[in-house]
């Protein structure tokens, strides 16, 4: 069941429960579906909840009255074209209606009249919302591989929003939805699944990261893409290591070494595998890998001081 289906089911089971309506209203609010959020907030008020000072509810009321307020402030701007407050107020109501181009224009007009850090900050906030607006429009007009890139870019945007505040789970849901949809338009499926694996790793969902990486390996194997196959197999070894599944990490580290003997890859895998052997209680195998690692480092010539293996905690 989707989140909205779960919340709706709660309301159907407890039609007099204020919290159920508030929870669904908050979900709608986070999605910027102010119209449906307001219906649930008003139902909660009907059941006795006091929302007179609730910021989300008041913003939904502003959305309801947005057209009227825009007309009101438009008249004020005609009468007092130098009053920046009228421009910023109208910009706020435009932004609620997601008419971002008009909102940005109003803030920009206010800045021309009175440049200030407050106004520049206001425009920055609107521009952040505008990113999602523009990306959504780009996705609508894009075709084939371009649609893949647009969806992937928006997925990255949502991912970063989630990582900035992990309580904002709706951004995680949106990111995952975009990444999965993007794959359907990808020409290089193996690369797309590898990037999906990296996304799941970033959001600490190792189980899904492992499954996506396995799919990337299977796809690369079918395409006989040895170079990428080694890279993906190395990634899978690292994921198993992070998940503390050391037997599997050893298995895939060994496979990756067999696929490619590149020094950088080899140093990383030898360090990873030796650590796995120690954790598995096989000190002799760990020692062998450490000796081999020292040999590779000694005969490797590279100007990058950070290339001598990776530290595992």
Explain what you see.
By secondary structure, the protein is an all-alpha fold. It has three domains: 3-64, Serine Threonine Protein Phosphatase 5, Tetratricopeptide repeat; 78-132; 188-298, Alpha Horseshoe (Serine Threonine Protein Phosphatase 5, Tetratricopeptide repeat), CATH 1.25.40.10. The protein has helices spanning 3-13, 18-30, 34-46, 55-64, 66-79, 84-96, 100-113, 117-141, 144-164, 169-183, 189-202, 206-222, 226-242, 246-259, 263-279, 283-298. α12 runs antiparallel to α13 (226-242), α13 runs antiparallel to α14 (246-259) and α14 (246-259) runs antiparallel to α15 (263-279). The radius of gyration is 27 Å and the shape is elongated. It starts with a helix and ends in a 15-residue tail after the last helix. Residues 308-313 have low confidence and may be disordered.
Which second-level CATH architecture of the largest domain applies? Alpha Horseshoe
Give the topology string: H per helix, E per strand: HHHHHHHHHHHHHHHH
Q: Poorly predicted ranges (pLDDT <50, ≥5 residues)? A: 308-313
Number of self-contained structural domains: 3
Helix content: over 70%
How many DSSP H or I helices? 16
Offer a concise description of the structure:
This protein has helices at 3-13, 18-30, 34-46, 55-64, 66-79, 84-96, 100-113, 117-141, 144-164, 169-183, 189-202, 206-222, 226-242, 246-259, 263-279, 283-298. By secondary structure, it is mainly α.
């Amino acid at each position: 069941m989707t989140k909205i289906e779960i919340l709706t089911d709660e309301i159907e089971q407890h039609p007099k429960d204020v919290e159920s309506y508030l929870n669904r209203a908050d979900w709608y609010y986070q999605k910027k579906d102010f119209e449906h959020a307001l219906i649930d907030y008003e139902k909660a008020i009907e059941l006795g909840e006091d929302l007179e000072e609730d910021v989300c509810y008041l913003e939904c009321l502003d959305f309801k009255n947005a057209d009227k307020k825009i007309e009101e402030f438009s008249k004020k701007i005609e009468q007092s074209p130098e009053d920046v407050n009228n421009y910023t107020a109208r910009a706020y109501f435009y932004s609620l209606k997601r008419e971002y181009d008009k909102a940005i224009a109003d803030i920009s007009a206010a800045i021309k009249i009175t440049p200030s850090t407050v106004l520049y900050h206001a425009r920055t906030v609107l521009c952040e919302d505008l990113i999602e607006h523009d990306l959504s429009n780009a996705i609508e007009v894009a075709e084939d591989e371009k649609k893949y890139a647009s969806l992937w870019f928006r997925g990255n945007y949502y991912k970063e929003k989630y990582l900035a505040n992990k309580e904002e789970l709706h951004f995680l849901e949106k990111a995952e939805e975009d990444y999965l949809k993007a794959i359907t338009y990808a020409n290089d499926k193996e690369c797309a699944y590898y990037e999906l694996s990296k996304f799941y790793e970033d959001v600490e969902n190792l189980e899904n990261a492992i499954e996506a990486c396995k799919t990337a390996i299977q796809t690369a194997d079918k395409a006989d893409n040895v170079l990428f196959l080694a890279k993906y197999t190395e990634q899978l070894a690292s994921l198993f290591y992070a998940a503390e599944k050391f037997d599997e990490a050893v298995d895939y580290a060994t496979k990756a070494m067999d696929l490619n003997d590149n020094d950088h890859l080899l140093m990383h895998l030898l360090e990873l595998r030796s650590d796995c052997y120690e954790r598995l209680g096989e000190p002799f195998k760990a020692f062998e890998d450490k000796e081999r690692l020292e040999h590779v480092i000694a005969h490797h010539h590279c100007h990058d001081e950070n290339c001598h293996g990776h530290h595992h905690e």
